[in-house]
């Protein structure tokens, strides 16, 4: 019987001669230009964005250039350079962990883009899920194994808690970090080539639990409050593969250059607009919503809210994709049902949006103030611009507690 193979080398599925990011800076700036600079908190790294407008008729365009300045006058800034001693200097141990996570993300990016992933889905036997978890998809399981293998190889992780596992996996006693993850969010969309993603959070190991039995200390380490996150991020697998991450000092996004295998800093110091004009939610569930949420949506759609413009609906049904758009353009992305996971989704994404100047809420309380009590605990989630979240919360009764259920 013929078989198919999927090669998970990060660059194996991409044309090597295509360079999305040239190795050297390209300057297209004209005399009429503006320069915007970002300097890392440590002062050792500087990114310049130069933009200029071409003149000459109604069809004029904009030119831009991106330069990265450091002591070695190198070209673009990679993720490893950004977190190294010339940039944020997150420390050697966290840097090693990030290097292994980066490798895992590139393997998953190659996997979801592979023409053979549908064949893989037919060949992989997937066991059932507990009542607290969705039924796992084959690619979710493979992505989970890729991340777990990378964390084992790093030697820097004590325990990994995943949306795909009923219980946390204890990896090594002396690992300084804890990783929580949703390995492949939105995987049901893959066959339609709709964006998917990975969500992750990183905590420090609770050394005060070291004397406890493995099962108990693994659970306690995994149920830390989101306020204790050391770093959090997501990866968007779409027309570009984008890694967005925060270490508690701003939110930054890196785009994968498939020709070199490097994540390149393309969105330094992201700031979500104070208010947007887009809401992202499954409008088909309108009649299941509580009264407060219906009134809020009706109001902003008509342009009768605190922002006197009519809002537009944009909904992909892929949390990472909906959140990424909201982070860049503003507005609010939400799921009013008790559906999304506090540990794997709500906490990491709330950490990221807060570091970009936004808010993460369950409709009543700040997400990062909540203490998880169950590994797969679910809740309502509202993420976005601070003014939009404030206005939404002011309506009260926005959490959908009645869930009639429906099949997709």
Automatic annotation (TrEMBL):
Residues 272-395 form the Fructose-1-6-bisphosphatase class 1 C-terminal domain. It is an enzyme of class 3 (hydrolase). Pfam families: FBPase, FBPase_C. It catalyses: beta-D-fructose 1,6-bisphosphate + H2O = beta-D-fructose 6-phosphate + phosphate. Transmembrane segments: none annotated. GO terms for molecular function: fructose 1,6-bisphosphate 1-phosphatase activity. Belongs to the FBPase class 1 family. PANTHER family: FRUCTOSE-1,6-BISPHOSPHATASE-RELATED (PTHR11556), FRUCTOSE-BISPHOSPHATASE (PTHR11556:SF12). This is fructose-bisphosphatase. The lineage of its organism: Eukaryota, Viridiplantae, Streptophyta, Embryophyta, Tracheophyta.
């Amino acid at each position: 019987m013929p078989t198919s193979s999927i090669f998970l080398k990060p660059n194996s599925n991409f044309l090597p001669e295509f360079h999305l990011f040239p190795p050297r800076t390209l300057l297209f700036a004209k005399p009429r230009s503006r320069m915007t600079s970002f300097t890392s908190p440590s002062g050792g790294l500087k990114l310049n964005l130069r933009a200029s407008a071409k003149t000459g008729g109604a069809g004029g365009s904009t030119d831009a250039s991106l330069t990265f300045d450091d002591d070695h006058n190198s070209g673009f800034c990679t993720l490893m350079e950004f977190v190294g001693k010339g940039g944020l200097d997150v420390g050697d141990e966290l840097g090693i962990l990030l290097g292994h996570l980066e490798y895992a993300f590139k393997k998953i990016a190659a996997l979801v883009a592979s023409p053979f992933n549908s064949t893989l889905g037919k060949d992989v036997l997937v066991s059932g899920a507990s009542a607290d978890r969705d039924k796992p998809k084959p690619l979710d399981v493979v992505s989970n194994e890729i991340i777990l293998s990378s964390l084992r190889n790093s030697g820097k992780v004590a325990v990994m808690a995943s949306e795909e596992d009923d219980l946390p996996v204890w990896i090594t006693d002396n690992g300084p970090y804890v990783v929580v993850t949703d390995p492949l969010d939105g995987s049901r969309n893959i066959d339609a080539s709709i964006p998917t993603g990975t969500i992750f959070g990183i905590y420090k190991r609770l050394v005060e639990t070291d004397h406890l039995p493995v099962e108990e200390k693994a659970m306690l380490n995994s149920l830390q409050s989101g306020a204790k996150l050391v770093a959090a991020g997501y990866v968007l697998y779409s027309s570009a593969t984008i890694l967005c991450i925060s270490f508690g000092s701003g939110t930054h996004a890196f785009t994968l250059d498939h020709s070199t295998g490097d994540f390149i800093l393309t969105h330094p110091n992201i700031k979500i607009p104070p208010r947007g004009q887009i809401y992202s939610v499954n409008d088909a569930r309108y009649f299941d919503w509580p009264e407060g949420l219906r009134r809020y949506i009706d109001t902003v759609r008509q342009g009768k809210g605190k922002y006197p413009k009519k809002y537009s609906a944009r909904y992909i049904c892929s949390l990472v994709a909906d959140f990424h758009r909201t982070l860049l353009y503003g507005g609010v992305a939400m799921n009013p049902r008790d559906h999304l996971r506090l540990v794997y989704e709500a906490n990491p994404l709330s950490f990221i949006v807060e570091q970009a100047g936004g808010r993460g809420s369950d409709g009543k309380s700040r997400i990062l103030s909540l203490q998880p009590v169950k590994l797969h605990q679910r809740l309502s989630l509202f993420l976005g611009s601070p003014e939009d979240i404030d206005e939404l919360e002011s309506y009260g009764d926005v959490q959908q507690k009645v869930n009639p259920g429906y099949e997709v």
